[in-house]
Amino acid sequence: MTMSPTQARFRSRSVPEAAHEGPDIICDNLVRIFSAEGVEVVALQGLDLEVGQGELVAVVGASGSGKSTLLTILSGLDLPSAGVARVAGRDLLAMSARDRLHYRRHTVGFLFQQATANLLPYLSAVENVQLPMLFASLSRAERASRAAETLDVLGVADCAQRRLDELSGGQQQRVALGVALANRPRVLLADEPTGELDSRSSDEVFAAIRDANETFGTTVVVVTHDAHVSEQVSRTVGIRDGRTSSEVRRRTAVDEHGVEGVVAEEFAVLDRAGRLQLPRGFTEALSMRDRVRLDLEADHIGVWPTCPDGGGPGGQPSGDEAAGRGA
Fold it and tell me: What are phi and psi of 88, to 5 degrees?
């Protein structure tokens, strides 16, 4: 991708806090258990996730799947019960309280569903964006310059002097995004950032997130229920029952007629122990429960429903059937 002169200038000013090799986010066998009134709830049960530097990823899943727990851990607001969690080369389990404060100020930015969680109503848009820089000890001139640049990249430069009640919902969320990006974090975490917006405002906010990802090189993880939003990224990670269950990867391809289009491919995620989650729609369609029969073929594994008595599916499948139904 060719950067515009404006993007190149901003990218040159956005220097990572600390250089490191490998993905910006690594979660390995991540476990989080909550206890309340003697009852233990397992929110994450062996979740694995990698997000590369500069990648824009959507994380989707039903309520209670573990998405919000994952974000609170990655943001440094919570600690996992077991496993590995690293962000921008920082081990989240080994940080002191002081390190954790520095991490939240400089390494990660957080965008909430409600813009008001990022904004103070009695400050103007530009003053809100400058506020995190004040805690990061930037000079007045640098705060003013960076805030103006940030609002420009996000398409709300004309709103700089307006207060919260003078902004539309979409404008508020883009200013809130500016607050999250004020200290040029290595990673941006966004929790349902378009959940309370109409479709037009939602498109504007997500376009601003994409522009920030491209201009500043920020690694972005967006948690969303919005299928329209998840379809705008090249990689969507599904979470089910506290584990990563599937991935959809999108790429641009040209068909036999020379027409360019987006091709989406869905994959099941295989963890280190060899476990994978079959999509619920697949298992329900074939009434798969409790156990399945596996057949190892030369180039694939066949997954077959069992009969109620625990036997096979009523005889060995033919070669053509195995090729058509194998996983």
Answer: 50, 40
What local confidence, expressed as pLDDT, does residue 324 receive? 44
In a domain, 190, yes or no: yes
Place of tokens 């430069």: 157
Rounded distance between C-alpha atoms, residue 21 and residue 67, angstroms: 26
> Tokens representing 308?
């109620």
pLDDT at 12: 40
> Of 193, 217, 240, which one is at a domain's C-terminal end?
240
Burial class of residue 158 in the structure, from the number of CB atoms within 10 Å of its CB (0-12 exposed, 13-18 middle, 19+ buried): exposed
In terms of domains, do 185 and 64 share one?
yes
Helix (H, G, I), strand (E, B) or coil at 113: coil
Q: Which of 12-26, 115-129, 137-151, 164-178 has the lowest mean pLDDT?
A: 12-26
Domain that holds residue 165: 5-240
Task: Give pLDDT, residue 292.
Answer: 86
Per-residue pLDDT at 164 exceeds 70:
yes
∠ CA 23-104-246, rounded to 5°: 40
CA distance linking residue 323 with residue 298, whole number of Å: 11
Give the predicted TM-score (pTM) of the model: 0.82
